[in-house]
Amino acid sequence: MAFKLSMGEYWPGQSFLHRMDPRAKVACMLALMVSVFFVHTLPQLVLSWAVALALITLSRVPVAKVLQSVRPVVAMLTILGVCNLLLVRAGQTLVSLGPLTITTGGAWAAVLYSLRLVAAVIAAALLLLTTTPTQLTDAFDAALAPLSRIGLPGHELAMVFSLMLRFIPTLADEASAILDAQTARGGALAEGSPVQRVKAVVPVIVALLASSLRHANGLSRALDARCYEGGAARGHWHPLRMATSDWLALVATAAYVALLIALA
Amino acid sequence: MAVPANKDQVIRDATQPVVSLSHVTLRYGDGPSVITALDDVTLEVAAGERVCVLGANGSGKSTLASVICGLLAPDEGTVSLAGENVLGPSGVDFEAYRRARRQLGLVFQNPDDQIVTSIVEEDVAFGPENLCLEPDEIGRRVARELARVAMTDHARSNPSNLSGGQKQRVAIAGALAMEPRVLVLDEPGALLDVRGRRGIMRVMAELRGLGTTIVHITHFMDEALAADRVVVMDHGRVALDGTPQEVFAHGEKLAGLGLEVPFTAQLAGALRERGLDVPWTCDEAVLRDALVSDSPLGPVPHGEPSLETGPNGEAAAVQVERVSYSYRDADSHKALDDVSFAVAGGSSVAIVGQTGSGKSTLVRMLCALEVPDQGRIVVKGIDTASRKDRRKLHGNVGYVMQHPERQLFAETVLEDVAYGPRNLKLPPDEVQKRCAHALALVGLTGKEEASPFQLSGGQQRLCAIAGVLAMEPDVLVLDEPTAGLDPRGRSQLEHILEDIHAHGVTTIRVTHSMDDAAKAQQVVVLSRSKLLMLGSPQEVFCAAHDKTLHDAGLGLPEPLRWAISLGLDTAPLTIEQLVDDLVATRDASRNEEVG
Q1: Which of A166, A226, A239 minimises the CB distance to B130?
Q2: Cα–Cα distance for residue pair A168/A11, rounded to 1 Å
Q3: Residue A108: which domain range?
Q4: Residues of chain B positioned with their CB less than 8 A from the CB of A4
Q5: Whole-prediction pTM
Q6: B211, exposed or middle or buried, with CB in 10 Å at 0-12, 13-18, 19+?
Q7: How many Å lie between the alpha carbon of A72 and the closest alpha carbon of chain B?
Q8: A180 and A257 assigned to the same domain
Q9: What is the pLDDT of residues B373-430, one digit of tens each?
Q10: What is the total count of domains within chain B?
């Protein structure tokens, strides 16, 4: 399989994070992700990382699995780190090699910006690892409820989001099968000028579109057969209910954000 | 399950058909291009009945399925579903349709399209949630249905990581969790391997025990034997309707409709033609008893077995030498482990093995789409590891992927078929010539200007194969080319492939059917990423290997299975050989009596 997406695949479990109300969880994790951008000092960084590591422990998801989700952004972080290292000029000069100057300020920026971003990615990964797509959909459904009230398709948007998560791996498999077939028919997909490449990709894209339409047809038949009626009231197997622990988690998150800002 | 709430309902169910169509006609499109999918169909299905619907592609089977499960309203006639009069003289009653649909379940071909969430148990809960059931009730039904289809262990799995057969069982559980009074299965096994299909048949057998009404649409004649009643469709009309025994007695008529009769019936018919005193039947046990009691089966007087092997003089077209491969992100085991074999030029090879045995990986390597981690593959003298030479190989090795119609993309059939030859940088007149030849080979001459997306399913398959043949490959690699085709489509494609092989093309074919594998010159058996067996069909398929093959999720060809259970000491691989052997034993025992 040419494209495997490990990020966001649910990791079954029974931990506190798994059992949290998805609405509370999404709110907490979003707060954690946004809060890292306030991190500028060492104590703040230590605090945000302490929380990130505590959450990994709390989720009981294997550390390797969480790190796997961080892997796709490592390249980006490396580039970011190198740029900071070379471009930020502040504090004392550590190394000076011709046009390259590394300062203490640059080194600090490289470490700080990379590490705080990793903390944010860990929070995002934990959200996806401990929340089923159905729960995520329910959470978004709840968040989009105001839209439904003013006549916009809030519930449908949430459903589309859920179907998207479900069909990404299917279409990725399909894409790699079609890519194989056209390559075997002599299609040169990674050669020649940009114009040639764009042309060469058409037989893959059109075939993939046709495949997607076939899936869409099948899916609509399945949704009808299973009595899905759009925005009409649906029952829930696991109705969302905010427990005391969920409120406590929200309070703890708020306290953490306050502390983080106080440490600045 | 239509578990009736009380006794009154039982009585009502017993007296009233759950599905009743009367003089139903349904047309697609309008004006000159109108297609009559159902033409004056009258059909009743009684509660608890198991009905099997057969028919060639385009006979109206799938439309009938959609009408029975309330997804399509016919243009004319009256329809009553699950006690609701949904269509009458006064027109369509949409509210009645909504009520009826809640009591009708549907499972169709592609399991991927029927699973709507990324967790198995939540998918099963999707239908009951739409019915607004109480959470406790949903939980109860989800657990019960997952247990019924033997998927309890996968309740929290992601469907993307399951096999096709497992996904289809999840889809069935999802339909059953809504407790439908009628379950419609529209070719549920069309995209599955033998083991997956068997799993579905087991679930169906269990449902029959519980009294669920089942309407099963299929291309596999043997599956129809388990039904109470068989309905044969042809051009939107009901052509035959009766018990399996009654319907399959019309062998010639069925052949005319593009269908066939089950193996047992074929065998019984062939034996009677040769003068054996056996009853005509499609019941395996009846025929077997008749054969055993007719005359004690003695040893078959046979000459030297004529072992057919591939042409020996020719140089190997494909050499696989100690090949191993693992996917980068796979957790642990290898996809292929130390596999070696050689394929003689111009021979035919069958690769068999259950899902996950490494077949697909091997095929991708033979086509130079993937390079081994260890070992090497040499095709026509070219090592696939060399990036530069690999492009040359793409002209020499043709690759027909699973469901090759997915590769179609162009506006016309001709443009699509020409894609390969043009990539080979051939002069325009040569491209033209090859396309015409390839289209003639698959019988699509005259369709050049049609859109490939407007062809029928079977024709799309042929068009895609023509696109590969137009490159005039020396080696043709096919991954289950007949999967999902109806009997007519299967035999048509078989003839085309025989024809191509007769022209000296080396064919390597992945197949799920042991009977197909027995027709090749060499059989490669893969199991758990390793080469399990290698040899001629006579060497691989023999009584001694029965258990080994069974453990690998495979089996023996049907004729051989019969011979073993009848105690014959020959190893017939085709129905003709089996008939010859049975006739020979009869003659031998007669001679004994005379002498």
Answers
A1: A226
A2: 17
A3: 1-153+241-264
A4: 329
A5: 0.84
A6: middle
A7: 13
A8: no
A9: 999 999 988 888 887 778 788 888 999 999 999 999 999 999 999 999 999 989 999 9
A10: 3
